[in-house]
């Protein structure tokens, strides 16, 4: 343990946080006389920010202290006020009244902070210990102020250990002492220092020697040259893995088409190839083509940047942005399944120690094919896992040394050139035949192949860049001859890297392997978009792109892999510690367990396994915000007395916010058969409020609004089933947990711009969602009961997504009725001619009033779709009812129209003063007038 005198450099980290805002480096530590574990306490946020917040305090150059993380800035004074409220409204914190305390102003000692940090983190993993999630939430803050990469690596590793504990323990946050005055600001300071201290002291634990008894297939294999399954060489398939690195574009696709397409192995199965694709200059339409040809698409980084030392020194966070984000990017732009992307090869074959493998383990990647071996080539090294220590030579250090279960290494068994010098890739060999001599090149390739084929039959890798074989036609011809030989051998098979891993996990002899079926995959379509986004922010270059999705707003790059213009908004990590500590992360959906009517995996599959032609095409019209005398005439004009082809009244959902709403008119809409749903009491700005809203915030805004509407509009409380948060700003798990706890059935706040064709159907949150997250934070926990009604985006005239019709940027001329009608129909037909996912027409009434041409086109659209006998305008609740119990179109058409219990309303005009802003509000309702204007915290105006 370090002494007080050793702690100066650790205190400087804390001072870096505070001195950035000219706030004094002081903290009050409250020590317990019983256990000597320090609990930090600021008697109020005034100790830090002045009294009250925002007011300078004598002797302090007052500025707001900002807590940083990767995506947003949070005012600490405002945060501590919210924390005060959060603490005062939570009753489950343990309280030890026996603890006596005394206060003193002190310097930090490492002994103190280690003790305090371990107390918070529950490092000994006892069940009663404190939530590591709270501690973990502070790592992004300290990372923002650290420049030493090795220290940041230690912090990343330490934070992952905390995550593992939080997942494995049912931890609760708790404090000793007087919780009524406990402040997180002091705790923040303590943890920042202690996190650094622990990270400095943490020793990397090396993986143990492999235990052959414990390490068994299919999930574990020791590194070695022994053939999996104990097979003899003659009974072992000789796998050949051909790989190409870097971007795929019009310059190299011709080569791939000429030499790889329509090639088959002797067992009749298509030959496999793996493409390790980097992002820059890649044409994603061609990636989709390669995938649909049955080839494997793997990852080779977004930036592929130089120098090579960048990759050697890359942190966990660097590699997450390069690799894990590229998996999302590749799936999105090429429209290929994310779960088909299994492998990684780092640029320049530059290893990054444990970090790249830890990223792979954390983000569902199966294997790495970066690590060459030059010593275990004859016999050759077979693939293995990193559960135990590797015996592979480390050619391009640093190599992994830790135990990282679940990740496979596919060793790059080196070739030998004409002088016996090892070379990991074909085009990296130094002493080679004349590049114009096809015969010598063929012999050179076959010599290296036979080392495997006549040896222990470790997979033979032909690792190359397309530029090499296209530059030298003789080399290309020799390569084609080699593939012809392999494809005609009865015991050799050209397969992709993932297929090798699959066989190693479950090794079978050649005779059994040849009888197995060929690999299967689900082809995907590609709606080609040609894009020229603005010059890239990182280098000012203008890129031209082709992809299978809508064009990005900016060139996709590190930190913004989908090229979104909007900056994502962060949930306060401190509140995550409070609200989400007990919510388990959702697992991948289990279709055997997740069954209708109460559970559905997120998917574009039509419920009930129906064909599109047998599926009703639902259209959901929605309007947001207040209902009052200014907009009711529009609703009466375009919606009332309108029926569909089945003779039933059309449905519409109104997401009603409270301010300026006339509840007698809400009652009128309900009695017309329209659905009333929730849109918050305050609809307050800024959007940051909703992004970081606590459980209590959401409950007061949404659940209290359910009581408010039912009371003042005199409609049945149980008829209010849905929610849409203001600004479509999701609040992570919080809003869905509130819904689950208080009986709300569905949310319609979550747009998708990726899953449009085919469209995403409604689903539950029992399991992990596949939906893209355009507006962070999205839910990540398993939260049974609530349904997600995905908002399938429109596409504007240039193909950009827009969640609501009135938010599209490139639109027809506002007075061109015909152009707007075609615009509406074109978006509708994407669903109608596709998988018939519900088509949402989401709009604000003011837009139709402001632009009569748009309103006329809207009415024309309604006239068209209500005349179609397989299209039904229904509310969101009716969509869910069908999804829970899907029936074919012919049965649905025979169902009776929806019924509901009408309610009376004797409109009562009221004039009330609001306590929150002193404004005078006039509105009418179906009950007696409240004492004050209803608002957050007092929804009935009592």
Explain this structure.
The protein has 942 residues and is α/β, with parallel strands linked by helices. The chain has three domains: 4-201, no CATH class; 235-513, Alpha-Beta Barrel (TIM Barrel); 613-892, TIM Barrel. The chain is 31% helix and 14% strand. It has 29 helices and 35 strands. The strands form twelve sheets. Strands 6, 7, 8, 17 and 18 form a five-stranded parallel beta sheet that branches. Strands 21, 22, 23, 32 and 33 form a five-stranded parallel beta sheet that branches. A four-stranded mixed beta sheet has the order 9-10-13-12. Strand 6, helix 9 and strand 7 form a beta-alpha-beta unit. It is elongated. The chain starts with 7 loop residues before the first helix and ends in a 17-residue tail after the last strand. Residues 1-156, 158-203 and 566-581 have low confidence and may be disordered.
Percent range of helical residues? 25-40%
Average per-residue pLDDT, rounded, comes to 81
SS summary, helix count: 29
Poorly predicted tracts of residues:
1-156, 158-203, 566-581
Instruction: Give me the secondary-structure category.
Output: alpha/beta
What best-fitting shape do the alpha-carbon axes yield?
A: elongated
CATH topology assignment of the largest domain? TIM Barrel
Strand content: 5-15%
Return the domain count: 3
Radius of gyration from the CA trace? 31 Å
Distance between the termini: 59 Å
- Secondary structure tally: strands: 35
CATH secondary-structure class of the largest domain: Alpha Beta
CATH architectural label of the largest domain: Alpha-Beta Barrel
The CATH superfamily of the largest domain bears the name Glycoside hydrolase/deacetylase
For the largest beta-sheet, the strand count, sense and barrel status come to: 5 strands, parallel
